[in-house]
Amino acid sequence: MTIRVAIAGARGRMGSTAAFAITEAPDMEFVGALDYKYDGWYMNSGSLTQQQSGVRVYTSIAELAQQVRPDVLLDLTDPEAVFPNAQKAIALGIRPVIGTSGLTLEEIDQLKCRSEQKGLSCIVAPNFSIGAVLMMKFATQAAHYLGDVEIIEMHHDRKLDAPSGTATKTADMISEVRTPHLQGHPDEQVNAYGARGADVQGMKIHSVRLPGLLAHQQVLLGGEGELLTIRHDSFDRKSFMPGVLLSIRESMRQRQFINGLEQLI
Ligand SMILES: NC(=O)C1=CN([C@@H]2O[C@H](COP(=O)(O)OP(=O)(O)OC[C@H]3O[C@@H](n4cnc5c(N)ncnc54)[C@H](OP(=O)(O)O)[C@@H]3O)[C@@H](O)[C@H]2O)C=CC1
Ligand SMILES: O=C(O)C1=N[C@H](C(=O)O)C[C@H](O)C1
After folding, report:
1. Which of 33, 45, 102, 144 is the most buried (most CB within 10 A)?
2. Domain Dihydrodipicolinate reductase C-terminal, which positions (predicted)?
3. 165 among the known binding-site residues?
4. Does pTM surpass 0.80?
């Protein structure tokens, strides 16, 4: 069976790389692009055209659903668009596979509820790279023994959200095993706002944005007289594609809500 995939954000850096990977996959078809503009245009080999060749762009998910009947909606948009897209997709019986970062905990809870009420899978994957998922798992294992943790995430300077979805997910996974406690000096004095980073249950997350970077993260775990650093680097968006294809395939097998690629590998 060929899996019919629509992409929200297909013009973007990740969306265009995913469109190519899906087109190349023998068991998938890229059937439609969901956007907020360019209604009725077409996407052909990564470019937009008004000529009727390639995959049509829709600004209405209801129209997209009716015209091209996608099985899956891959979302690679932005923090504002992702939640309404996923809610509407579930209501229309389309399985969301969400790579977009920036969903709040409340939004994740609501999507879980809706997908389970409907018996339709919904996959949220803050990072599709297998190496990044292993980095999060290894850091969680290490935090059993070394509970003082700081995360440094580094991304390209076009990224809209901070901290990254990966850093937030890493902190969530570590907080499952780490006894909550304050890190650093209790009387610490911060002289420049933000110098100590964001606080997630006592752990600090530092977000770096620079041209030249793509997606990188270090988890630093400190103990008496020692430091363990677990680092992952994505140098190319191709690093995310095996996880994108795996998630799309799994979304057809599952009927529940899945938060994190670590649940699938
Ligand atoms: N899970 C993972 O492994 C990965 C996740 N990401 C996440 O994916 C998302 C996209 O990243 P990236 O490709 O770099 O960003 P881009 O800005 O390159 O792409 C986002 C695209 O979505 C479009 N868009 C915005 N709003 C809507 C909407 N309502 N409907 C449809 N399309 C919309 C944007 O259009 P316009 O430019 O006109 O605003 C843009 O073309 C981010 O949240 C990022 O964090 C990125 C890499 C890996
Ligand atoms: O915006 C990006 O580029 C990335 N976003 C995701 C995140 O927020 O963690 C995944 C990866 O880090 C690339």
Report:
1. 33
2. 131-263
3. yes
4. yes
